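Let's practice the habit of predicting before peeking. Look at the sequence and jot down your guess about where helices and strands might fall. Then scroll down.
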Amino acid sequence: MQMEELARLTATYGFPMVVAFCLLVRLEKRLTELTSAINQMCNCVERMEVTKK
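Done guessing? Here is the structure:
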C-alpha cells in the first residue's frame, strides 16, 4: 500500500478504520496458515488414535 493511498483512505474513513483494515489484511495469511496447521495436527492425532487401538 502506497503512502498516497494510505493518506487518502485515512482522510476518507478515519485513522482507526484504516489501522483495523491494515491489521486484518496482514493477519489473514497467518490465520490461514494457522488453520492449516491445526487441521494437520488433528489428522496426526486421529492417526495416532487408530494405531493405538
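How did you do? The chain has a mean pLDDT of 88.
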